[in-house]
Amino acid sequence: MKTKYLYIAFAGLMGFGMSSCEDDLDIPQHGVLNYDTFYNTDEEAENASAAAYLQVNASKYNLHMCINALGDDFWSGGSARNDNADLEQFNEFTFNTEAEYIKSLFETYYSIVYKCNVILGHVPQNSDIQKRTHAEARVLRAWAYFYLINLWGNPPLVDHELGADEYSQPNGSTEDLWNLVITDLQTAIDGGYLPEKTSVDDNKTWRVTKQFAQAMLGKAYLWTKEYKKSAEQFDAVVSSGKYALFTGNYGDMLGYNNKHNCESMFESNRVYDVNNTFGNFDLTGVMIHWRIDKMNVPASVGLEMNQGWGFLTPQQSLYDDFVKVEGKDGYRLGETMKTYKQVHDMGCSVTQAIISEGYFMWKWRFTDEQCPDGTYAMVDDNNPRWMRYAEVLLCGAEAHFLAGNQSKADEYMNLIRSRAKAPTKSGYTEEEIRREKRIELCGEYTRYLDILRWGIAGDLLANQGSKLPLLNPNGEIEYKTYNTNPALYGFKKGKHELFPYPGTEIRLNSNIKQNPGW
């Protein structure tokens, strides 16, 4: 596996024989970092940490588009067939080893691993700041490997900065990889140097916290079926009292005006700089915004009107699960998505057919305020949210249910239901817990990984790609068939449980074995 690394250059020692003296010239090469002199101060440790955090931030677009397209919550969307062929391939499971999303995600997560390994290998631990930097690196490395394991199964285990003779790493053992994740998180938690919020209302603490590490450890145990241990970690987050469900308007929870609110377990910072709009270049917001050029949307609605490409539109099955829980007039449903009738009642209309089943995401709406540069709609001044407290409660409910603690599962479920203004009860079933997680966290990178570990992805996604919905201006839905051979679309058991390793990786690394079916 090719791994980026810092070059250490040494200027040549030039000796000149002279009758009276010998001049030794040691000329350092400008722009090159030397591990003997760098990473020795707190400031340099902070710089190394910032590089890791920035790499996490950079993963937003590919993760959002790819993981959401793979599940059963969304259609690829857009204005017409082939509007985004790469996204369609993931939505319909027609992608191959050369898919750009796969290559980009693989490289991004290993870039995070690399930057964390540099910290762990070169930053000393002589101060509290340096020790905190080490703890953060372990959490971020575990976060990256959580996705690498889930998506590829047995990716190379790289727990140190690789030397030039170590690049071609073989597949790792899935068990060893999970052990690395668990050990990294437990070590960071036990070390006592991870930050903690000062209170539930603290919106200034932005680094990974002890409670985020505990939540990730809870997820690692949940995925490896250690349900009692998993529940203990989620309980620790809850009992800390440092986080709570957002109590404002549900639809504003992920808005740019509510960054680092009481429910945010971890999010990346994006700072708008009017003098550097390209420094904030993020396509995600505009890509998943309504298809503005094929709609009439009044300015009074408050959405960004310069651009919107309409990708990742909700599937009816997602809407139907909301209705099963809270009815067609449910509060959370109305703040998550809108039907075409509701959109029409707001004064909006579709002027040309778009790929949609008649539902529009409202939860991640792209507002005028969110785009400070009114002439450049791709500047998205909102933070990527990686985990909410609601996920802690829902994973905790699942872990407690599977560990045999029904009352605690009910308690956590009812906290979610009460905030959603949905009916509460006792005796929730596993199916109900799964449905609650689907609707509460839709679009937040959880659904596809869940249905994979639950072993239901093959059945749910077998026919994905058999049809594509078109929403016409009159509000009618027309289903089009583009893929006619069932063997060439849809989730195939024994193959799609794991991503293929990127073709470039296979060609460069003879020691890595491709996943089954690819």
Helix-strand string = HHEHHHHHHEHEEHHEHEEEEHHHHHEEH
Main beta sheet: 3 strands, antiparallel
C-alpha Rg, in Å?
A: 25 Å
Strand percent estimate: 5-15%
**Total beta-strand segments:** 11
DSSP helical segment count? 18
The overall pLDDT, averaged over residues, is: 91
Write the layout of secondary structure elements.
Blueprint: H1 42-57, H2 60-70, E1 74-77, H3 85-92, H4 100-122, H5 128-152, H6 174-191, H7 210-223, H8 227-240, E2 264-267, H9 284-287, E3 295-296, E4 311-314, H10 316-326, H11 331-336, E5 337-339, H12 340-345, E6 349-350, E7 354-355, E8 359-361, E9 385-388, H13 389-402, H14 406-419, H15 430-440, H16 447-453, H17 457-460, E10 468-471, E11 477-480, H18 503-508
Antiparallel strand pairs: 1-4, 2-9, 3-6, 5-8, 7-10, 10-11
Helix pairs in contact: 1-4, 1-5, 2-3, 4-5, 5-6, 6-7, 7-8, 7-13, 8-13, 10-15, 13-14, 13-15
Walk me through what this model shows:
The protein has 518 residues and is mainly alpha-helical. The chain is 41% helix and 7% strand. The protein contains 18 helices and eleven strands. The chain has helices at 42-57, 60-70, 85-92, 100-122, 128-152, 174-191, 210-223, 227-240, 284-287, 316-326, 331-336, 340-345, 389-402, 406-419, 430-440, 447-453, 457-460, 503-508, and strands at residues 74-77, 264-267, 295-296, 311-314, 337-339, 349-350, 354-355, 359-361, 385-388, 468-471, 477-480. The strands form five sheets. Strands 7-10-11 form a three-stranded antiparallel sheet, with no helix packed on it. It has a two-stranded antiparallel sheet with strand order 1-4. Strands 2-9 form a two-stranded antiparallel sheet. The longest helix has 25 residues, at 128-152. It is globular, with a radius of gyration of 25 Å. The protein starts with 41 loop residues before the first helix and ends in a 10-residue tail after the last helix. The model is unreliable at 1-23 (pLDDT under 50).
